[in-house]
């Protein structure tokens, strides 16, 4: 196997020498698409097999004990793998891809090619209440990035193949190539030219094709009911869109609270995993539909017998009572964020893509069923609302309305609900964007100023390192000096602004040549003017650990051309605005993806 792989690599190097860069890129995006699709097949097959196994056990014991036990085992195994084989840490969420694009020149760690597959299959495959799509996109991105590094492709092609891996992963996971393309463009790459579409489309189509050939349809989330749109239902879709936006914000904030709680957990890795998994087990015992991705329950909501969701629960004998079923669905919808937070916060691996579809489907069902049971409207199509609700939550959580619209349109096998999809997704996005500036996956990064992939200027500034622009060859003036001494220093340097330091070499202010010019050219004033009388306090200084965005804001606010950099009130040097702008222009020129 190893020899065959070496031969294939040698063949690709030979092919690269024979083809043009563009032609080799097209070959590469097909190979990246196939690799991403194979990762999807492994993950989806494993997760589906465990789900069927859990259902088989349930039919024997008639209680959801196995559903509660399996996630505990899965999360503990994940924690063990991370600690034993992955250096004690694993990066979660699509934000890792955004960091690679914005700050690391499209380079992703090699371990991401396999780490996500192993850990997420253990967590989600064994019932953790999260999704596989985020690990799939990270794996696909890692395939694209490392392939480009292997065959020595430049930054532009490396970043493009990274996006190809993402598109192929989404395309394969849902058999939705258009959604894969849009997700890669809308979420991962905020700035790209039209010519970059072609490789991404090829990868997405390849991933979807391989997935369709290999995976059985029941493993994928798909609907084959004939769905039609009745314009009389528009007011109800508007209400659904508003609620979807509000629930999106609730889900994101609640998830972060639970995850942050575990981030402050001081106990050992295994104790944290056991506590979180134990709490998750309790939730799954009472709400078995929280087990795993939840796609089976989404399909059940769109069927003619949603009462099956109450099977193997303490409410099973009430499954024919529509109000109790509605209450069960409403509560499950609201605690899904807690279940996902427990899964990921305690040490499991997964994402929020599947949970967003889960919550959206439950919300759509709840809204439509409520209006039916109350008699406000007796003709609302419940399955339509369940399906459209998924687009609303996906749009609100990830700030990706186009991806949401086309993903749901593709998995339903047609565009009969295109108008309500646009209505619900747009309203949800507007409300969520108003209440949360950043999407769920990059909120934490945005709060720390680490990366803003939707803002090209901030992306570029975040890649400029302050330390590399500090100039340390500068003269200082001790606060015990006389003005005649400053005149002597001025005659030996072209420096015009001098930091003044005390006996502890702490920064106390500056002397500006332009300010003291009238004094030093008058010998009388020079002799009888105290140094303290000409020391100024600068409008601002820079801390050595500040991000470049705030540095540029300080340049703009002060109007200075140079600013001094301080660490513990000691002057490390200064930076010039012109240097930063030169670096910015160079990076802007190289970062354009074509």
TrEMBL record:
Q: The CBS domain covers which part of the protein?
A: 469-526
GO terms (molecular function) for this protein are: chloride channel activity
Q: Does the keyword Cell membrane apply?
A: no
Which PROSITE patterns has this protein been placed in? CBS (PS51371)
A single cellular component GO annotation: chloride channel complex
Indicate how the chain sits in the lipid bilayer.
Answer: Multi-pass membrane protein
SUPFAM superfamilies recorded for this chain? CBS-domain pair, Clc chloride channel
Keywords of this protein's UniProt record, alphabetized? CBS domain, Chloride, Chloride channel, Ion channel, Ion transport, Membrane, Transmembrane, Transmembrane helix, Transport
Its primary localisation, in coarse terms, equals: membrane
**Where in the cell does this protein reside?**
Membrane
Instruction: Report which superkingdom the organism of origin falls in.
Output: Bacteria
**Transmembrane segments in this chain: where?**
24-43, 63-82, 160-185, 197-215, 236-253, 273-291, 323-347, 353-373, 385-409, 415-432
Protein name per Swiss-Prot or TrEMBL: Transporter
List the source organism: Flavobacterium suncheonense GH29-5 = DSM 17707
- List the top taxonomic levels of the source: Bacteria, Pseudomonadati, Bacteroidota, Flavobacteriia, Flavobacteriales
